[in-house]
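Appendix B.2, paired examples.
Example (i):
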Amino acid sequence: MNEPLCGTYNPSIDTKGRMSFPTKLRDILGAEFYLCVGHDKEYIAVYSVDEFKKYCGKLNEIPGDIGSEIRRELLAGADKQVPDKQGRIFISQTLREFAHITDEVTVIGNMNRAEIWNPTLFAESRKSLDPAAKKAALANIVL
């Protein structure tokens, strides 16, 4: 995957756990991709097959018992998805519960992965970013 994932989308999710995954993101991710729990917050991470392999490789570098436990936690609910003809994917009950997803979702592109969020948690996460820390982190970026 060479093209970065970006954008914000707000599809709905039906009672069976199916949602229409945004076409622009599907086009970049490819014909199949992986869903797994987010490693830093309560969202569902969406990786292309190649990016998921890289992610697993990085997780595999964490040594010892803590590495084993982290891999179990992050990969136990991982699920390979192939969108149907309507572009819908299925989100397992385990992943929906982890991300507190019910009937609405916010899907964002975040460089090498997409993220599926509960809209309220996504809004709270955005508000929690310290403006001074953001300014300092971006200070050296020159375009």
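Example (ii):
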Amino acid sequence: MREAQFLGEQIERRVALKCLHPEYATNEDASQRFFNEARAANRIGHPSIVQISDYGIASEGRAYIVMELLQGEALSKRIHRNAPLPVGEVIDLTIQIAAALAAAHERGIIHRDLKPDNIMVVPDRQMPTGERTKVLDF
């Protein structure tokens, strides 16, 4: 994923731009699944689910999703760097992830690729621990 500047300059907000691999650009099913990911994330509407602001097809034919730019680290990197994680931290992260998945399941949405690479841990002063999980890639 790369950071998108085309929107950030106009609305003074940095965003992330996720593009469908060029190999799948002409595959209508792949594009539809890609856009379903964006719609699913927004239907859930939970603070621990990445926020999507737009999606579409770029002029060269590649599908894209515009989402919040997350400043943090993938849970997989944290695990690799700090393994084993302290039990209290694991419990807190697990509760947050479970709450996000419960919100998804309440709306009939199932995450089919849940793994540490698809979970970001980001700073959040509103959380008691100062961190929030963000589930990606629905």
